[in-house]
Amino acid sequence: MIRALYTAASGMNAQQANIDTIAHNLANVNTAGFKRTRLEFEDLVSQPQKAPGTVTEAGETPIGLEVGLGTRATASARDFRGGNLRATGAPLDLAIEGRGFLQIAMADGRTGYTRGGALHLSAEGNVVTADGYLLHPPIRVPAEALSVTITRDGAVSATMPGSTTAQQLGTIELASFTNPAGLSAVGSTLFNATPASGDPTVAAPGSEGMGTVLQGFLEDSNVSVVEEMVNMILGQRAYEANSKVVKAADEMLSQVNNLAR
Questions:
Q1: Across all residues in the chain, what is the average pLDDT?
Q2: Span 101-139, pLDDT tens digits
Q3: 13, 16, 54, 195: most buried, per Cβ within 10 A?
């Protein structure tokens, strides 16, 4: 009965983490470039009471006897499937159609990776994220530019006053990973590479299996509100079931304590 208390408590802790994950997904349902997370569980070690193949008077037992000790959250798997593309008309909004991440120069010198393509111009004319991080490789738009054009292969050009020929400003490069699920989330829809993700492969959009970029579009979050609501109900019911096990074990202990009366 004491074992049942701890086993059920592990289930309650696991479902609490599950609900926390679902809450995070729902909170970011309108965050451009956000990728939903799914919590994965594993059972805890089982205590063997009798091993399979134990020799008895009648022969060997075909099965054993073991008691499990509950469950725990073991991993948070991020779903990198693409979200819906939404037209915004903003010249520096970018969506990636296919594989790849935009590269962002982080303050600590590392390179961040994101699918959130809401970009802006800094006071110096540099293309930056909403938090002020520079796009990598850097692209600077002259203050006198009349318009900015970004092609599907990442070429960035600007139309200048008195000129009929667009001026080339640079090229956007995308990065891809063998195991994007191994990337480490650092907030602001940014990820860092890890040994699990592998080193990035960098190439121009549309080459080496990379997706293409769409100017004037954003990639919406891939969170499905209906799916998350269903998962929340399932998690809530699982939490309630485990709490009932705690209550049942407590009542059994109470009966044992009352035997001496």
A1: 92
A2: 999 999 899 999 999 999 999 999 999 999 999 999 999
A3: 13
Interval 204-244: pLDDT, tens? 999 999 999 999 999 999 999 999 999 999 999 999 999 99
For residues 241 and 169, membership in a common domain is answered with no
Distance (Å, whole) CA 19 – CA 30: 19
Question: Quick count: other Cβ atoms within 10 Å of Cβ 56?
Answer: 8
Cβ distance 216 to 118 under 8 Å?
Answer: no
Give per-residue burial for 18-43: e unless 16+ CB within 10 Å, then b. Answer: bbebbeebbebeebbbbbbbebeeee
Confidence of residue 260 (pLDDT cuts 50, 70, 90): low
Q: What is the pLDDT of residue 261?
A: 58
Q: What's at 51, amino acid-wise?
A: A
Structure tokens at 176: 């891809």
Distance of CA 151 to the CA centre of its chain: 28
pLDDT for 1 equals 60
Sorted by sequence, the CB contacts under 8 Å of residue 202 that are 6+ apart come out as 103, 173, 174, 175
- CA atoms of 192 and 201, how far apart (whole Å): 14
Number of domains the chain contains: 2
Same domain, 176 and 125: yes
Tabulate helix, strand, coil % of the chain (nearest 5): 25, 35, 40
C-alpha Rg value of the chain to the nearest Å: 27
| Residues spanned by the domain of 55 | 2-79+224-260
Q: Which two tokens stand for residue 183?
A: 């990337």
Q: What whole-number distance in Å separates Cα of residue 83 and Cα of residue 101? A: 14
